[in-house]
User: Which sequence fits this backbone?
């Protein structure tokens, strides 16, 4: 089978890789700055140049590549192959014909997919979701992305918007989320929300080593710093991750009630906290889910790391041509 190119379109970097879609191996990869402020036309040209360069660097010919998949951080129209709203890129890319433009510039079949749906596809096919037919993925980072595989199919919904698990409501009286709704999971348990809990604890003068660890520069309080404090025995820091795990667990409990996943995968940068986050998620599920066999639902960390997106979207491109 031909190899495929998977790409992560990030606000900071463009990352492209040649992927063997039969076994999920990343054969060769390259990364360059996105330079998003130059505008979408310039970025698409840089992407096309990167794809051709990564093929050359892998000592392959263009004819050996079956196509390109691009994971995109935002709302898409999959039928038209357009970006609709990319909140982290200047100009937000309304109605940019990304799929057709890259196809024209490279001469290779191109597919686009939301970045976390790409991660979901990668983890299901070759990562933490292998071997099960129904999976929910929470990617905890600057925001909270999500994705679903239901009965052995990546769930897309209308225009590819299905699976936004970070925007399930866990408190209808909650704070305003960046999406415009109130009380979304993202407002409670994203990286910035976790950091904000740490900042508040130090500002209130609570008994915690977080202030000492950042020399009382509140801008230096991050989820990673809080995790380090928690692992060192800081009770306030441990409580912050308990709360974050509770919030994610409530959203995961809703997924158990609605789709009955056999596995819930926790990924993203914040998931590097490991059991600090996974344990309270599991406890919350056991406490709150009573209408299905929750003891059969596994809560696990993602396995593929930074490669999940490029693997998943390369496989998506191959699937569309099969």
Assistant:
């Amino acid at each position: 089978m031909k190899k495929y190119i998977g790409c992560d379109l990030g606000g900071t970097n463009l990352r492209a890789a040649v992927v063997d879609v039969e076994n999920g191996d990343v054969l060769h990869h390259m990364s360059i700055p996105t330079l998003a402020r130059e505008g979408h036309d310039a970025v698409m040209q840089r992407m096309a140049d990167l794809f051709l360069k990564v093929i050359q660097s892998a000592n392959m010919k263009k004819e050996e590549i079956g196509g390109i998949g691009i994971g995109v951080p935002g709302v898409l129209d999959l039928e038209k192959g357009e970006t609709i709203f990319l909140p982290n890129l200047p100009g937000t890319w309304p109605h940019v014909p990304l799929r057709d433009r890259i196809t024209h510039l490279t001469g290779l079949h191109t597919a686009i997919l939301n970045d976390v749906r790409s991660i979901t596809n990668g983890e299901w096919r070759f990562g933490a979701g292998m071997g099960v037919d129904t999976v929910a993925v929470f990617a905890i980072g600057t925001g909270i992305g999500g994705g679903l595989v239901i009965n052995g199919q990546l769930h897309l919904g209308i225009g590819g918007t299905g699976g936004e698990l970070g925007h399930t409501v866990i408190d209808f009286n909650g704070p305003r989320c960046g999406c415009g709704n109130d009380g979304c999971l993202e407002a409670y348990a994203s990286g910035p929300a976790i950091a904000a809990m740490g900042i508040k604890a130090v500002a209130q003068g609570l008994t915690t080593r977080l202030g000492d660890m950042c020399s009382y520069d509140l801008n230096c309080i991050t989820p990673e710093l809080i995790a380090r404090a928690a692992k060192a025995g800081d009770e306030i820091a441990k409580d912050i991750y308990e709360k974050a795990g509770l919030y994610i667990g409530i959203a995961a409990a809703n997924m158990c009630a609605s789709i009955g996943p056999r596995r819930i995968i926790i990924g993203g940068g914040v998931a590097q906290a490991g059991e600090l986050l996974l344990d309270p998620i599991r406890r919350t599920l056991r406490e709150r889910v009573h209408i299905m066999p929750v003891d059969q639902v596994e809560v696990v960390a993602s396995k593929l790391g930074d490669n999940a997106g490029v693997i998943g979207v390369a496989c998506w491109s191959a699937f569309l041509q099969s």
